[in-house]
Design brief:
single chain; alpha/beta; Rossmann fold; seven-stranded mixed sheet; two-stranded antiparallel ribbon; 9 helices; 11 strands
Amino acid sequence: MKSIISFILRNVPRKYIQLVSGPTLKVIGLFLRGNKVTCPIIGRSYRKFLPYGRVNPRPNALCPDSLSLERHRLLWLYLKQKTNFFNEQLHFLHIAPEQCFMKAFAKQHKDGYITADIESPLAKVKMDVHNIPFEENTFDVAMCNHVMEHVDDDIKAMSEIYRVLKPGGWAIMQVPFFSPVGSVTYEDKSIVDPKERESVYGQDDHVRLYGHDYPDRIRQAGFEVIEDRFIDELGKDKIKKYALPANETIFFCKKN
């Protein structure tokens, strides 16, 4: 199973995976039901989750029914416990929308929920995050996860998200970190060969390797940043029950 998932992720474009993965994995999920791990997004339990990853698939990572990964389940708990996200109807911009969230987010925020992506067939609006086609001060909340490592100018993209948020609005913009994490973000625009990019950045479609200065890059776009170690508040039992990432900081970004 690990080798099959790795092959698909490395060779099939994301937009096609999004179209066909749901029904296929739901069938597999029928054979994984149990009580060892639970996806909090759908409240369903399994003996284990599926492996996931391009090179060395992580065990117990992908929920076959919701399609959530470790980081998604952590973020769901964070939104539930530490924000107003599920307490009121918001005008919400979801960039590169994760499939595991979309049904619940649409139910909560109704017509205020706007999904956007440069190519995803799941999104309502086709857009480039460098040039967001909405007026300033439009949205209460924005989410843009695991995108900034792909874009040409991450500071410009973050600034665009800042622009379209209302004063007092907030965003979550997570990115991957590869161990060992450096002190500063590394990028070299001369690296264009996919194999070299994978070697340097961890993935062939990444254009930078983020370091500990990531929150400072967000601040350059105008945001106030809270580096929230929410994972440390949950305890070992919940981390195991929900199969959460062992070490993930949530970057809560606020527009004052």
